[in-house]
Amino acid sequence: MPSPSGGSVATVDHVFLLVLENHSFSNVIGSPHMTYLNSLVTEHSLAINHFANAHPSIPNYFMLSVGLPETFDDNFSGMVTDDNVVRALSASGKTWKAYVENLPFPGYTGNDVPPLYLKHHNPFAYLSDVLNSSMQAANIVPFSQLLADLNAGTLPNFGFIVPNSENDAHTCPGAAPSCADSDRLTAADTWLKNNIDPVINSPAFGNSVFIITWDESTQQDFANGGGHVATLLLGAHVKAGFRSASFYQHQSTLRLVLDLLNTTDLPNTAAIAPSMAEFFQ
């Protein structure tokens, strides 16, 4: 699909976007506690100048799905009616699912279920397109459905992946009241190896792109709003071992998802965000 910059991205069957939590680029890239993640960096592509948009978490999740921050309150309980990724995909005849670890049941759009499910990490639970349609709400499913869909050959065009709060590096594993940050990173890295490696190495992954990013950097890092974060692009169409120093934020990631799926609508700031076409063969 052409981009305004003159480059193009691949047109693929499936795009996956996985969001991890609250760590800076320097926390994770080269970390001895994230050996699996860093093996992916070696083999695939890395944006080395990518920044989150804000603190706390929720505006970044909305930038990745709506192209607007919407709110800066993690306790937000309203409905978002702006144009969004669900509307864009549906208008282009594309399918989607949010694979959410520890979601109580398919279609759940309710409040937090502590300690593992945090609603503000699941932006689809706020979108009017989802809340006003039981058919769309049914696309929010427990994470375990991903492997079932992979094995059945029924993957959606877009999959948004939400690990639980102990597996996304947000909180201490095992419900520990405190821990070293290395424990959080090790838990997230182990989860990625156990749950994502089988996906990207499956024949069913095929003509797909997998994106891993962080919602925001550490709370002390306010560079460009939300701080410096790592963003990886994986897949056969992605340049191997590529490093991009171009400046990107989450609205470019939203644009990338929709460019890869050849949609006709780029919601809000995604329409003017820099293209990430340089990452592709």
Low-confidence stretches: 1-6
Q: Give a quick account of the main beta sheet: strands, pairing sense, barrel closure.
A: 9 strands, mixed
CATH superfamily label: Alkaline Phosphatase, subunit A
How many E strands?
9
Main attributes of the structure:
alpha/beta, Alkaline Phosphatase, subunit A, 10 helices, globular
If you had to describe this structure to a student in words, what would you say it looks like?
The chain has one domain: Alkaline Phosphatase, subunit A (3-Layer(aba) Sandwich), CATH 3.40.720. Helices cover 27% and strands 16% of the residues. It has ten helices and nine strands. Strands 1, 2, 3, 4, 5, 6, 7, 8 and 9 form a nine-stranded mixed β-sheet that branches. The protein is globular. It starts with 13 loop residues before the first strand and ends in a 21-residue tail after the last helix.
Summarize the entry for a quick read:
The chain is an alpha/beta fold. The chain contains ten helices and nine strands.
Topology (elements, then pairings):
Layout: E1 14-20, H1 25-28, H2 35-43, E2 45-51, H3 57-65, H4 85-91, E3 96-100, H5 128-131, H6 134-137, E4 140-142, H7 145-152, E5 158-162, H8 181-195, H9 197-200, E6 208-214, E7 228-234, E8 242-244, E9 248-249, H10 250-260
Parallel strand pairs: 1-5, 1-6, 2-8, 2-9, 3-4, 3-5
Antiparallel strand pairs: 2-7, 6-7
